[in-house]
């Protein structure tokens, strides 16, 4: 990543091979932003690989030695409403005195795409 990138010379080299490539200012900006994005992404990837090498991989679905040695099993109590999720109608039943709570996650709309300003088409001279 410690190098110099001459976008102008690279674009000139592209145009020598393909005459119609990169002719407008918007296309130059696109090339520059693409190269900038690639360098940033590559730098983040290198940083993440270095962090993993330093700290090791992080796994979330493993049992650590302290947990395995203790062999603690947490019993799961059955639902007070049974499989039908309907309370019984007995007035002395504790399950009937509480109302079941239904979890509904918030509906989050997908992110909107960013609008890229377009330059009007150049007039043919």
Describe, in plain words, how this protein is organized in 3D:
The radius of gyration is 31 Å and the shape is elongated. The protein has helices at about 5-15, 25-55, 65-70, 95. The chain has a domain at about 20-55. It contains four helices and no strands. Residues about 80-85 and about 100-105 have low confidence and may be disordered.
Low-confidence stretches: 80-87, 99-105
Quote the beta fraction.
under 5%
Largest sheet: none
- Residue-averaged pLDDT: 68
Distance from first to last alpha carbon: 42 Å
Pfam family, one: Y_phosphatase
InterPro entries: Prot-tyrosine_phosphatase-like, PTP_cat, Tyr_Pase_dom
GO molecular function: cell adhesion molecule binding; non-membrane spanning protein tyrosine phosphatase activity; receptor tyrosine kinase binding
Keywords: Receptor
Could you give a quick summary of the protein structure above?
This protein has four helices and no strands. The chain has 125 residues and is mostly helical. The chain has a domain at 22-57.
Key terms:
125 residues; mainly alpha; 42% helix; receptor tyrosine kinase binding; Tyrosine-protein phosphatase non-receptor type 11; non-membrane spanning protein tyrosine phosphatase activity
């Amino acid at each position: 990543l410690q190098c110099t990138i001459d976008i102008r010379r690279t674009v000139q080299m592209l145009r020598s091979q393909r005459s119609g490539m990169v002719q407008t200012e918007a296309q130059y900006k696109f090339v520059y932003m693409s190269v900038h994005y690639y360098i940033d992404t590559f730098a983040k990837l290198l940083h993440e690989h270095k962090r993993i090498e330093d700290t090791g991989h992080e796994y979330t679905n493993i049992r650590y030695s302290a947990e395995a040695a203790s062999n603690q099993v947490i019993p799961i109590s059955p639902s007070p409403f049974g499989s039908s999720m309907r309370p019984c109608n007995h007035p002395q039943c504790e399950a009937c005195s509480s109302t079941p709570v239904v979890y509904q996650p918030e509906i989050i709309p997908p992110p909107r795409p960013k609008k890229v300003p377009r330059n009007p088409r150049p007039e043919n001279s």
